[in-house]
Amino acid sequence: MSIETKEAPACEKPSYTFICSRGTLDGAYPPLILSINAVRLGYESYVFFTFMGVNILRKGYVAKLKFHPPGFLGAIPGMSSLATGMMKKQIEEANIPDVEELMEVAQIEGVKFIACKMTMEMMKIKEEELIDGVDVWTAEQYLKLAGKCAINMFT
Fold this sequence. Notes:
Strand 3 (112-116), helix 4 (117-122) and strand 4 (134-137) form a beta-alpha-beta unit. Helix 1 runs parallel beside helix 3. Helix content is 36%, strand content 16%. It has a domain at 17-65 and 100-149: Hypothetical Protein Ychn, Chain: A (3-Layer(aba) Sandwich). It has helices spanning 25-40, 79-93, 99-109, 117-122, 139-146; strands at 15-20, 44-49, 112-116, 134-137, 151-154. The chain is built from 5 helices and 5 strands; from the N terminus they run E-H-E-H-H-E-H-E-H-E. By secondary structure, it is an alpha/beta fold.
């Protein structure tokens, strides 16, 4: 992991970035699916995890991901657990890999995971708490990369 300020990597081929700011089940899938598909199409691919999304990079956190229904349903006690179970069942029935497997596939296939330095400082997260293979960048570093990319998507 590197936290020193450095220039954005030279984009040797078209590159895409995806921002993950939600540490929920439904917040994890879009950037992972899109980033894996970007690599498979021949692009460099980066996922920038910020705010609650950075928790996805914490060791052991993925197993705790939940789905929080929007609106008043999410406020009903126990609804989050029920909705999470239902969503996981639908994911399994559709033969979609779980988040942990998708993260492993993403890294194996070359997706680069980046944790937001400011978020880590704010939440008092230490680098040792993150899974292996994660870089820690400032927002400035991310923006330098994003400025060179073909697509930047907030998922």
